[in-house]
Design brief:
The protein is an alpha+beta fold. It is built from 17 helices and 19 strands. Bound molecules: (2R)-2-hydroxypentanedioic acid and zinc ion. Zinc ion binds next to β18. It comes from Craurococcus roseus.
């Protein structure tokens, strides 16, 4: 800085000098979208928002904030289901948007990797992979807004976990800005790399409590050359599981997604979402969506789809089925599943329970939870749906029609406890793919106590000794 200019003294001045006018925003209208989560569960306050343009700027900004003891809240697409990316009400936590770190650094169809920055939207990453003739398989409803940094920080799952694993399984390397501002460049693109602790796995799923993921090397796969989607009315939860097993036993590698929907959920979608009518004639209590895909040009997926559905119809597990005959029809079938969160939002207040159990226990989970929830809140509507093929069910509960939404939501913890009692009994997890965030901060004490939680606290203390990274998330404040 030239000598004739005043030297910044306070943190704000220093950050302003470092990041420039587009890198630090403080007008209330600029801050507002970053202070609340999209579900509207939390409304925080903040002195200003940082929007660094690259990892070097972020690293300098983090160093300055660490020196001043300022707490930082990493934010990607702000699509967290658990309030994981918004500051608290103190007005002291500084949100840091990674939206400007949005370069696709490299797509390599020989190594089958792509190197992308944290602010790249998941859909854009999928498109870049497709343009190179490859597939980036992570896929879920929020993919048009969620960012790579966010999905890695939460270890997101989505629809294709059954075939390709969660976000964690897709990461080969990471670049991370640590809480003291140092940059760890671990952007290796190796399939084999046994050089000590696999540090990247600490940052994936850490929900921004250990530092900022700024870029990642992600795995790519061969693109699908054939795909088939069927929407099926099924006889029961058990019939849905049995149908999944029929497909998996026939060809495990072809099952890209297997989703469950309840009759209540499909009815809500038909009622609240334009153009999402039931695609089969039979109105049932349970539905399944199966998505098959193969990179082989001669996979014969239509034959497989028809043969398995035929078997299941004969066994009276499937009551009715519609197979999508074109890309548009396949998308229309998927839409009924993907509109579940939106239909539930339009129908009133919901308590969401993102839980997982061993796949074999999914029917029991849904039955027992639905029964317990109906007894707990008379008139409420259990709406279980989701990723049956990997054991992750969204065991959601919609408010009774005639109740005040706030009174219903005031019972959220009671409702979550009722679900979690069943989940525990079945050997499951109270947080499958959305993370802990603020909504569930504190449950680790109960679910991961003893040496496991002790190790987590020690890791946190070793990497972020001042506790400045995303405080109040994952662990209670
Ligand atoms: C999905 O599978 C998302 O659509 C959202 O994980 C689930 O709204 C939900 O509970
Ligand atoms: Zn989901």
């Amino acid at each position: 800085m030239p000598d004739d200019q005043p030297r910044p003294t306070g943190l704000l001045d220093r950050l302003q000098a470092l990041l420039g006018p587009s890198g630090l925003l403080s007008a209330p209208e600029d801050l507002a979208p970053h202070l609340t989560d999209w579900r509207g569960l939390y409304r925080g306050r903040a002195p200003f928002l940082l929007r660094p343009a690259n990892a070097t700027e972020l690293s300098e900004a983090v160093r300055l904030c660490a020196g001043a003891g300022a707490a930082l809240v990493p934010q990607g697409g702000n699509t967290s289901m658990v309030g994981g990316a918004v500051p608290d009400e103190s007005g002291l936590q500084v949100p840091v948007s990674l939206a400007r770190l949005n370069r696709m650094r490299d797509v390599d169809p020989v190594d089958m990797t792509m190197t992308v920055e944290a602010g790249v939207v998941v859909k854009a990453a999928q498109d870049a992979a497709a343009a190179a003739g490859c597939l980036f398989p992570l896929s879920f409803g929020g993919e048009g807004s969620a960012t790579v940094g966010g999905v890695l920080s939460t270890n997101a799952g989505g629809n294709t976990t059954v075939r390709y694993g969660n976000a964690r399984e897709l990461v080969l390397g990471l670049e991370v800005v640590l809480p003291d501002g140092r940059v760890w460049n671990g952007l290796r693109r190796l399939r084999k790399d046994n050089t000590g602790y696999a540090l990247r796995h600490l940052f994936v799923g850490a929900e921004g409590t250990l530092g900022f993921i700024t870029a990642a090397v992600l795995r790519l796969f061969p693109r699908a050359r054939e795909s088939e989607v069927a929407f099926c009315a099924v006889a029961s939860e058990e019939a849905a599981l049995s149908l999944f097993r029929r497909f998996r036993d026939r060809d495990e590698t072809a099952v890209r997604a297997f989703e469950y929907m309840s009759g209540a959920g499909v009815d809500l979608v038909a009622r609240h979402v334009a153009g999402a009518a039931l695609p089969v004639e039979t109105r049932a209590g349970h539905y399944a969506l199966v998505d098959l895909a193969s990179s082989r040009p001669d996979a014969g997926l239509r034959g497989m789809m028809e043969a398995v559905l035929e078997e299941a119809l004969e066994a009276e597990e499937v009551l009715d089925a519609a197979i999508g005959g074109s890309e548009a029809q396949r998308a229309a079938l998927w839409r009924i599943r993907e509109e579940h969160p939106e239909a539930q939002r339009l129908a009133g207040a919901s308590v969401k329970n993102d839980v997982s159990v061993p796949v074999s226990k999914t029917p029991e989970l849904m039955r027992r939870c639905s029964e317990a929830l109906r007894a707990l809140v008379p008139g409420s509507v259990p709406v279980p749906f989701g990723h049956l093929g990997d054991g992750n069910i969204h065991m959601n509960l919609l408010q009774p029609e005639d109740t005040d939404p706030a009174a219903f939501l005031a019972r959220s913890h009671e409702i979550m406890d009722a679900v979690n009692a069943v989940v525990r009994d079945l050997g499951g997890s109270p947080s499958a793919e959305h993370g802990i965030g603020r909504l569930k901060a504190g449950i680790l004490e109960e679910w991961r106590g003893g040496p496991e939680l002790d190790l987590m606290h020690r890791i946190k203390a070793a990497i972020d000794p001042a506790g400045l990274m995303n405080p109040g998330k994952l662990f209670p404040p």
